[in-house]
Amino acid sequence: MTIYLDNAATTFPKPEAVYRAVDKTLRRLGVNPGRGSYQLVLEAGRLVYGVRQTIAEFFNLNDPAGVVFTANATEAINLALFGLLQPGDRVVTTTMEHNAVSRPLHALATRGVEVLKVPVDATGRVTLAAIQQTATAGGVKARMVALSHCSNVTGTIQPIEEIGNWCRRQGILLLVDAAQSAGLLPIDMKNMGIALLAAPGHKSLLGPPGTGLLCLAEGVLPQPLLYGGTGGNSLSPSMPEELPERLECGTLNAPALAGLQAGIEHIRELGLEQVRRHKSALLEQLIYGLQTLPGVRIHGPGQARRQGGVVSFTVAERDPAEIGYLLDEEHGICVRTGLHCAPDAHGSIGTLPVGTIRVSPGLFNSAADIDTLLDALARMVKFVPNLTICKQNNEFQEG
Amino acid sequence: MIADDERIALFNSPTRVMKAERLLRKAGLPCRMIPAPRQVAEGCALALRFAIDNQAAIFSELTAAGLTPRRLYGKQGNELIVLPLATGD
Lengths: 399, 89
What we know:
The complex is a heterodimer.
Chain A: E1 3-4, H1 16-28, H2 39-58, E2 67-70, H3 73-84, E3 90-94, H4 99-109, E4 114-118, H5 128-135, E5 144-148, H6 160-170, E6 173-177, E7 196-200, E8 212-216, H7 254-270, H8 272-291, E9 296-299, E10 311-315, H9 320-331, E11 333-334, E12 336-338, H10 343-349, E13 356-359, H11 367-383, H12 387-398
Parallel strand pairs in A: 1-11, 3-4, 3-5, 5-6, 6-7
Antiparallel strand pairs in A: 2-8, 7-8, 9-10, 10-13, 12-13
Helix pairs in contact in A: 1-7, 2-7, 3-4, 8-11, 9-11
Chain B: E1 6-10, H1 14-26, E2 32-35, E3 46-51, H2 55-64, E4 71-76, E5 79-83
Antiparallel strand pairs in B: 1-3, 1-4, 2-3, 4-5
């Protein structure tokens, strides 16, 4: 039996209600919401609006029209960054970011946007003071601060509320990449001073792949990333001014959005605290077990209550890829190894170029799954010969 | 599509029409989304249709929610005419 422990990449499986919602919508309401005005289309439009409303409530956003659907968090982040930053603007970020943030920023830097990266401590955490200093250095105020809420490599949780409230007082836009926190940690856009929140629908919000969102606080209006049909005001050559139509064009994936709504409802029924408690218990068990294994080093806070849904570790003189391969091949355990699309973060915690082994339990994992993983690792660490090193040595001798 | 004793309201976007309809249904005020007639909207648009008798209550709900329509129309003979965005008829 396969044990899936890569929920930071995407959650799997989903709650039954998610599968049912997708299937039901595709079978019974598989029309194009917002295109036309017959009853089926209106019903699909109501469904999509209902998803916006659920999301707005979930993140404490007043107006559901500020919820813009995208294909994933990466698209949402691109929309926010390219839609708001102009040559000459300063944007402050950290050295813990995923490529979803650092690559668009790299591209923007080549177009004249000043991109400043704030370093983090050994656990991957940034401080408000460091953000403040960089965002106002040289008497120039940043236009935006853009960072992840929770690292996809170490699980480190950033002090978003402190940073957000300072940004709001300064008139600086705060973009939060909530890829690893939405559906796991409480997010209140108003109280945390978040101007733009980018999140995937398919991770801890438990929706299907192909769903993502950008939530915009009142008055935040990026330029569109895509141009095309919006189902209304068709004679105009320009995109509409109103949200969300201004930033959404082409056909929406209504069946997947119905699944996303079911996923969020599932979380609401369980309660976010219960979700966090479950994952924290599994992470605590994992961290405790890892600490007993020889040669294992945990990267990041190393305390479940101080991190999100992942634990990253390395084993002395072992290639993470090899460990991952053996876990999969011999034990049917799925974990992620390597750089996790976040080379800057690995540079910050000293795990370049090989990366780490990342374990991310989900809502449907149990303590028994973690025990199985720890047993497998214990056997590997203690008894399995280091095949990589043997091979390298042989090759060296032969050469 | 529109009777003499009905009004239609146009909004700034399809999402606002959806929002308005949801709000009014919750308040127990009957209304219906319809395709906006060609005379009142350029390109494709949705409109909200409701009875004149409910206009005051509907405007009160919409205004309180910051959803004042962009334009309001009523029927005069076979024509649709723009009406002031007042709360009463």
